[in-house]
Amino acid sequence: MIKNYFKQAWASACHNKVSTCLYLSGVALAVATVMILSIGFHTKLSPIYPENNRDRMAYVQTCWWERENSSGNWGFPWQMLDPIFGNLKNAEAVAIRNESRQTNLIGVEGSDKELKLNTQWVNDGFFQVYTYEFLAGSPITAAEVASASKVAIIDRLTAETMFGSVEDAIGKTITYASTPLTIKGVVREASRLTPMSYANVYIPLTIRDDYNEEGEAGPYRIIILLREKGDMESLRAEISSRFEVWNKTLAKVDDLKYILFDQPRSHYDLTFNPWSSPYYDAGENGIEEYVWIGLVLLLVPALNLSGLISGNIRRRANEIGIRKSFGAARTRLLGELVTENFILTLAGSIIGLGLAWVLVYCFRDWVFTISDSYVAMYSDTSVHFDMLFSPVLFLIALGAALLLNTVSSLVPAWHSLRRPIVESLNQKL
Amino acid sequence: MALITLDKISKLYRTKEIETLALDNVNLTVDPGEFVSVMGPSGCGKSTLLNIMGLLDRPTEGTVTIDGSKASALGDRELARFRNENLGFIFQSFHLIESLSVLDNVEVPLIYRGIGARQRHEMAKEVLDKVGLSNRLKHHPSQLSGGQCQRVAIARAVVGNPKIILADEPTGNLDSKIGAEIMNLLHRLNTDDGRTIVMVTHNELQAADTDRVVRFFDGRRTE
Ligand SMILES: Nc1ncnc2c1ncn2[C@@H]1O[C@H](COP(=O)(O)OP(=O)(O)O)[C@@H](O)[C@H]1O
Ligand SMILES: [Mg+2]
What we know:
The structure holds two protein chains of two kinds. Chain A is α+β, with helices and mostly antiparallel strands. Helices cover 50% and strands 17% of the residues of chain A. In chain A, α1 crosses α12, α2 packs antiparallel against α10 (287-315) and α3 crosses α8 (232-254). Residues 46-47, 168 of chain B line the site of magnesium ion. The site of magnesium ion has 3 residues of chain B, from α1.
């Protein structure tokens, strides 16, 4: 019986080539849209290398300060790092990154070669918060940061470009602004889709001349790894009380006031409300808003598809009449029509998934460099498989497409099947 | 005992503005093995009568009894099964399924009877052979002439071995030579296989060849 259903589906799909193609491409486009959106969300939200701990991350990115006649914001200044973020009870590790210019010319010792590479100035906690996989060597240590040791970590692609292999890179020297740095570790490369952790070269933040420059604010952004997912509120309380103490001591000398506002913020908050500020209402955004946009985007193809489906079924009134005349019960025909639709939707969805992958892959450079005007020459913008394939998301998209199309085929099918046979038989197109 | 009994059948079509009494208190019985022609001017209710007799439409009033079963007592599934086992239709405009091959079209009634693929092929090929189309199995209806289409339709009507064949102007769309061939086939179904046939026709000569002629005018029997 199932075989008959398939055979019939195939026959009518081949017979109505134009509408089959329209239908398949409609479903494929809709599913591809959902998949691209969800690949986007997936890379932004799900744990992906090296940001596998996203659900335990707490971000303190912005340092808002006020004086009587002025105010401003940037990252944190050096002098605040230890008083505010040192030895936090609720933190398993604290990553500090200097957000100063990120693309730099890096030389290879003993050669004229200089490569424009993406650079991160980080502390030792950075390698605890982010789960870099070391292909060779080891991470930067606290002692190395404290003593401004001239060391560096590079990623695999850089290692292979500069020295031919991962193993050969260890112990070699690269130069940044004439400072020689010894490579002590090589990590599996991150992707530009994770901009906070992406870089070709990681250098202790104390190597920069200006690392301890004083100012109201500074270049340091903080990412804290919570001990437990649920520790966000106690961490907030902890940091908030340190802010209070800091403001009290500082107010005496400098009439400055620092504002913590809604920080620390979860990865989710940071992703959806990047512009949250104590000075204006940036609005409460969330994934809901994007889901709505996605639904509206989907509504158009969905309406087209259900139009196409009901048009198809109407066009086949004559066939329905014939089949009924020769002994098909309504329920049986309903089964046939819905199966047919199901098979087409399944095929369209798989095409859509493929299409989404091809599109994301082809436009990865564009996707990756969209917020980055410097393009590091020797960095391949690698798309990792775990970014592209989230089986759960595909199943959700597939389920949504199947549900939508089954419903939009059920209604006109049932309507058509309820008509008297004679009416179906004699319907003029 | 009669095979088909129509008892006080009326059919009223209601559209927004007009009401048409297509059949007005019609009584008719058909005996097993009979070949009956139905005649009358266009619009007098012949097709309506045949559709009601074939359980494709329900009468507004009256009862249809076929082979002892009262049609009004059957639900959708039972009706479907009853049509499948007892009735074979031949229409003026053939009503073949365009997306299916000749063989697949003829197999349609067998599919709904739940017969396996191999046996279906055999049965369908056998009847197609009888109507002289065994060399057109893979063709699609659009690739056939009108006469060939009607022969496919006849094959489909008889493949499930129903007692009753209902034919609504089966030669209406065909020229007279081809029409005569189709009539030959119908007569053979009647005399050789003993099938009961009710046929609507406009052709007095064709009607004269059948066992009995029933005449209609304006929804009423006149003969
Ligand atoms: N579905 C319908 N709705 C309204 N009127 C109909 C319908 N079918 C048939 N009729 C009317 O019923 C009458 C009988 O039609 P029909 O049985 O097709 O006649 P015949 O087959 O004898 O030409 C005609 O007047 C026709 O217009
Ligand atoms: Mg008619």
